[in-house]
Amino acid sequence: MLNNHLFIFFLKLKIHLPKRVFFFVFNIVSFLALIVFSHPTASICSELADTPWPMFRHDLQHTGQSPFKSIQHPHIKWAFQTEGAVTSSPCIGNDGTIYFGSQDTKFYAVSREGKLKWNFQTQGEV
Question: Residue 104: what pLDDT?
């Protein structure tokens, strides 16, 4: 009920605004209310995909930690040389192709064996 009293009190205030200003403010407030109240809740937007690595950095906390046990004795299978540093995160396609960008302004597709499939020259760092 307190909200109703505050609202009634607000309505009793006599504020004289030009019609243009009133409609401008009314439209802005209405637009913001529409955005706030029509936006889906965080629980709907933050559901994870049903895959082993459902999102960037694995989980909602972005820990980057895998639930799977890692290789106990790792060794380098192959290396791929670019003309610039690689600072982007790679993406792996369904067929095992590894996609990534480089500071040499190219976007690369490399096979799972480490061989260049193709590259694309961009207009800036990827």
Answer: 94
Q: Is 108 exposed, middle or buried (0-12, 13-18, 19+ CB in 10 A)?
A: buried
Distance CA 94, CA 51 (A): 12
Structure tokens at 14: 């006599």
For the question of whether the overall pTM of this predicted structure is more than 0.90, the answer is no
| pLDDT tens digits along 38-55 | 655 555 555 666 777 778
CB-based contact 87:80 (threshold 8 Å): no
Residues 6+ apart with CB under 8 A from 91: 98, 99, 100
